[in-house]
Amino acid sequence: DADVTQTPRNRITKTGKRIMLECSQTKGHDRMYWYRQDPGLGLRLIYYSFDVKDINKGEISDGYSVSRQAQAKFSLSLESAIPNQTALYFCATSDLFEQRGELFFGEGSRLTVL
Amino acid sequence: KNEVEQSPQNLTAQEGEFITINCSYSVGISALHWLQQHPGGGIVSLFMLSSGKKKHGRLIATINIQEKHSSLHITASHPRDSAVYICAVRYTKETSGSRLTFGEGTQLTVNP
What we know:
A: four-stranded antiparallel sheet, globular, B: about 0% helix
């Protein structure tokens, strides 16, 4: 099994629909992240979580929400999808960053909003 | 303007060539990652650097803290090295967690 699993891998939806992207990890990491990737731009942070009770907004959180259901699970929701949320979304996990620098990404979820 | 600049944006090489990809950043950092993104989209962390040099197989990563610059080298390049290579930094101004700032990536194509 992959260290970080994202579902769905591909999704096409319509404007206004609610969408949830799910992420689960087997690394035992406390820290989890959601990023989006757009052509010509670097990965940008949407939300991050350092443990189940700690959720933080990233640089582009508007229009998104998250839920940390357990240490291993971190979901990203688009309450009312719009076309400019069409992107490739990545979940990532890390350990205590400064100490070992372990950083793992999922395979990505490609979302198209029509 | 992205605070992490990579060059070149695109690079085409012949199999066997020595490859260099560069990354420059604007202020002090505590760590720098080199990542590889496969054509299918998945991202893999290759190296984390805070100083000096690291080597793994044919890949070598160096960092010069004073010049705020890092390089990723690939020796004896192979078509399977074709991918997007991404530089990501953690600035020292961050007091919690690994909030990384990413470069736009370098698309490498190695022809047989």
